[in-house]
């Protein structure tokens, strides 16, 4: 009987970096529970990932894996603890345990000074971008620890160059991403003796729907206008971020924990 595959839960899986991470992990033989709200949020002025997009990601990931049942969809809100617990439980029950959790769900809002941002938009940014990572950690870390020693668990999150740069008109987003970086460092210390690592990636301007919305908030001609701020002179691709997350999820990152890895085209230089 063949052993169960390594198993990951990925949030924000319907599109962007989350979707690219699902596809990359599937190609590398992982079983993946792809979680997304798969609906809009009335507090936010732009469309979020849809159920159709999530279905498409899961189908494509199954095709790339050569095993359609290796990737499953789970619709739910990362802000709801019971829902995230249910997602983790489904992954454990279906594949026998959890080896990695990737917090990639994110939203953006702003476009005006912090004190003028509608409160419901500010709360959505904080509750998804930081609260969703905290909620996933609360649900997933105990599952990672349920693996018998020696463990090789991985808790991963998507931070941002905004964690260290003050971006005008995006104060809540900056605050949330800085919180993610701090959380990862603290989790790394708390988990150090248990065979589980905690790391994050910090992307620069990446061609995703969030960057499209950022361009609208800044009244730019389009997301491509952000390319000029990165030394490599182009936008990053979601797959480039996913490749680093997949590395961090794998065995060759065993010497890394508490790292916030810039994948930003030199933006932080």
Automatic annotation (TrEMBL):
SUPFAM superfamilies, sorted: NAD(P)-binding Rossmann-fold domains
InterPro entries noted in UniProt: NAD(P)-bd_dom_sf, Sc_DH/Rdtase_CS, SDR_fam, SDR_subfam_2
Keywords, comma-separated and alphabetical: Oxidoreductase
Residue intervals passing through the bilayer: none
Keyword Transmembrane helix appears in the UniProt entry: no
UniProt-listed CDD domains: SDR_c
The UniProt record lists the keyword Oxidoreductase: yes
Signal peptide range: none
Family per similarity comment: Belongs to the short-chain dehydrogenases/reductases (SDR) family.
Protein name, entry field: Mycofactocin-coupled SDR family oxidoreductase
Organism: Actinoplanes subglobosus
